[in-house]
Structure formats: structure tokens, C-alpha cells
């Protein structure tokens, strides 16, 4: 039996203001985009919502996607429901990717992740 919301577009996370291959200066502003899903702070367990995590030069394995996302310099948490940040980055290449987490920082299932992009800080 088909579900009533099958016609809905899938949720999508994306980085609004930076394109893959962008050359930027530090500090780097990163704006988080999210379609067809809501943003709620960590600890708020409401269907259809989550909060952003920004992975910097990191990735999560399929197994990692079943556990809370670590909180460190490569796994930035935005549990207050923030939709942007400013990063102080040294010159070099960086891979950025958004991962939406639930109330307990566990990636949403099925995963809502942005396409990874690479930026160069000059």
C-alpha cells in the first residue's frame, strides 16, 4: 500500500553559498540549506526535524551513520538549530559536507547529507 506522502520530494541538505572548487579567504562563512525537512535544536525529538553537523575533512562510514556524530574540530555540531557558521581555516584544501542529525545527534535514517564540496582557502 502506498503512503500518502510518496509524492513529496525527498529531503535534501546542501551548502548554499559555496560551490565545489571555490577559492575563498578565511574566515569562511558557510550557509546551510535544507529542503523538505525542518530544523530543530538537539534534544527536540519532533518527527520531520533534525539539526546540522558540518564535517570538515571527514566522512562517516555506513556503521558511523548508526551512532551519534562525534563532536570535535572535524565534526562540528549545530545543536542550537543554527543554519550558518563562520570558520577560521588555515590556507589549504578542505572537504565540507553537511549531515543532518536527530535529537541525539544520530544521523537521520535514511541519511540527509549534502553533496561533499572541496574549497581552497588562500
UniProtKB/TrEMBL annotation:
DUF4399 domain residues: 30-122
Stored InterPro entries: DUF4399
Pfam families recorded: DUF4399
Record protein name field: Rod shape-determining protein RodA
Organism: Iodidimonas nitroreducens
Amino acid at each position: 500500500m502506498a503512503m500518502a506522502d510518496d509524492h513529496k520530494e525527498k529531503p535534501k541538505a546542501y551548502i548554499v553559498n559555496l560551490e565545489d572548487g571555490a577559492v575563498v579567504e578565511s574566515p569562511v562563512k558557510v550557509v546551510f540549506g535544507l529542503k523538505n525537512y525542518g530544523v530543530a535544536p538537539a534534544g527536540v525529538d519532533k518527527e520531520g526535524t533534525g539539526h546540522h553537523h558540518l564535517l570538515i575533512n571527514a566522512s562517516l562510514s555506513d556503521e558511523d551513520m548508526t551512532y551519534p556524530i562525534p563532536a570535535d574540530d572535524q565534526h562540528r555540531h549545530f545543536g542550537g538549530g543554527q543554519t550558518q557558521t563562520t570558520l577560521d581555516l588555515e590556507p589549504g584544501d578542505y572537504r565540507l559536507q553537511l549531515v543532518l542529525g536527530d535529537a541525539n545527534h544520530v544521523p537521520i535514517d535514511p541519511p540527509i547529507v549534502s553533496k561533499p564540496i572541496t574549497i581552497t582557502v588562500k
